[in-house]
Design goal:
10 helices; disordered N terminus; 260 residues; mainly alpha
């Protein structure tokens, strides 16, 4: 097969209108490093301790600093595991941040809010909606506590991107290389499965409202992952996630202040 035919075959297996033409996902195809399925299993397993630390009422020292520990552990352990199995190449998740990337962060955040609020409104009309307890408590905090709350969300939301996108890459490799699924099909499969996973880990946050988590939270996750699929840059999806949540937090806080 000639080089031009190879390039045509590769381009045919890309979502040309969604993906940046000059980039590809790291690791799943052996670049910049090859990671075996067993090594991916180890990396993905390191997601669990961070989730447990966030979800379970584990006693610890009292103070603002210690509130940041679970938020830092959440991305820290999987990234350390990635650095262990792919020495020197863990930065493959990250790309540059320029004006374009900032615009994409804002654009995807606004798109996510529009779609989430639309789906949420329809969902609210059909059944009962459970509020986010931590967001509801925000109005009861003083200024310093609110600043700490917003600051803590930065590593935590970055962590949510890490624990979603590393399994995405593991599934992408397993589906495309291990199961013989085409690249497009593998992307869609990894996209759907990790969005469902993201929705399910939010069940404790929303009082185990399964339908709300799968429909509303899962849809929001798909938009955030779309930013990753387009750019292959975790900074873009993280920035969109932070802007999205901060706007929602601010709207909730402003609404509570107006009522009071």
């Amino acid at each position: 097969m000639t080089t031009s035919n190879v390039n045509k075959a590769e381009n045919a297996d890309r979502f040309s209108r969604l993906e940046d033409p000059a980039s590809d996902f790291p690791f799943y195809n052996g670049s910049p490093a090859r990671i075996s399925n067993r090594q991916w299993l180890f990396v993905v397993a390191m997601v669990v301790p961070g989730l447990l630390l966030l979800a379970l009422p584990i006693p610890g020292p009292i103070g603002v600093f210690w509130q940041f520990v679970p938020a830092i552990v959440l991305p820290g352990l999987p990234l350390l595991a990635l650095a262990y199995v792919a020495p020197g190449h863990w930065k493959g998740l990250f790309g540059k941040i320029s004006g374009r990337e900032v615009r994409l962060m804002l654009g995807f955040a606004l798109l996510n809010i529009i779609i989430s609020m639309s789906i949420g409104t329809l969902f609210n009309a059909a059944t009962e909606v459970t509020s986010n307890a931590s967001t509801a408590q925000l109005s009861g905090l003083d200024t310093a506590e609110r600043m700490a709350f917003f600051a803590k969300t930065i590593p935590q939301l970055f962590g949510e991107e890490v624990i979603t996108l590393l399994p995405f890459l593991a599934l992408l490799q397993w589906l495309s290389k291990g199961r013989g699924v085409g690249r497009k099909g593998a992307i869609i499969g990894a996209w759907l499965i990790t969005s469902l996973f993201f929705a399910l880990i939010h069940l404790p946050t929303y009082d185990w409202n399964w339908v709300q988590c799968i429909v509303v939270i899962g849809s929001a996750r798909m938009i955030l992952t779309l930013a990753w699929i387009m750019t292959k840059n975790i900074w873009v999806s993280t920035g969109a996630h932070i802007v999205n949540d901060w706007l929602l937090f601010s709207m909730t806080l402003l609404g509570a202040m107006m009522v009071n």
